[in-house]
Design brief:
CATH topology: MetI-like fold
Order of helices and strands: HHHHHHHHH
Number of domains: 1
Structural class: mainly alpha
CATH architecture: Orthogonal Bundle
Radius of gyration: 21 Å
Distance between the termini: 32 Å
CATH class: Mainly Alpha
Strand content: under 5%
Largest sheet: none
Number of helices: 9
Helix content: over 70%
Shape: flat
């Protein structure tokens, strides 16, 4: 719960700065020097870890809500059948909960693409950073940012359609109402 609250409630940009500039200062001296001076692709690694922690806290909350949306009788019945608590979650509760959380996970998956644009703040040469460089070099800002918008749209649309296929394949008739 502390993990979820910590990473979900601190803005992503602030987390990027904390992980890149502050956390290395609290590491042992040798590690700190390695991270600051020798670590290969330190901007990318920091951004990937930060996005991973931020997204994991949001996904954890969505899965928790999916489990909470199931009737308590599901767990009670599986325990009454002799399953251990772990088996009850593995074979009964999680398969149903994960089907319920596919739509919010789709949104979260698309948000990873969009949130990656924040990584330019610590020097990652991602799409938004490259667009800014292209715009400065060519002075064609409208065309550049329209192309970037199109690329983000293609990524989000592809993720959305892929997750829709997964949702259709895993749907259990009558478990949840179709929304789309």
């Amino acid at each position: 719960n502390a993990w979820v609250e910590l990473f979900r409630n601190i803005p992503l940009l602030v987390q990027m700065f904390l992980w890149f500039f502050v956390v290395p200062e609290f590491l042992p001296r040798d590690w700190s020097l390695w991270v600051k001076q020798e670590m290969p692709a330190k901007e990318f690694v920091t951004a990937a870890l930060c996005l991973g922690f931020f997204t994991s806290s949001r996904v954890a909350e969505q899965v928790r809500a999916g489990i909470g949306s199931l009737p308590r009788g599901q767990r009670d019945a599986s325990l009454a059948l002799g399953l251990t608590r772990t088996q009850a979650y593995r074979y009964v509760i999680l398969p149903q909960a994960l089907r319920i959380v596919i739509p919010p996970l789709t949104s979260e998956f698309m948000n990873v693409f969009k949130n990656s644009s924040v990584a330019f703040a610590i020097g990652v040469l991602e799409l938004t950073f490259q667009a800014r460089q292209m715009q400065e070099d060519s002075e064609q800002g409208i065309e550049t940012y329209l192309a970037v918008t199109l690329l983000y749209f293609i990524c989000a649309f592809t993720a959305n359609r892929g997750m829709a296929l997964i949702e259709a394949r895993t749907r259990v008739p009558g478990l949840i109402a179709r929304t789309g």
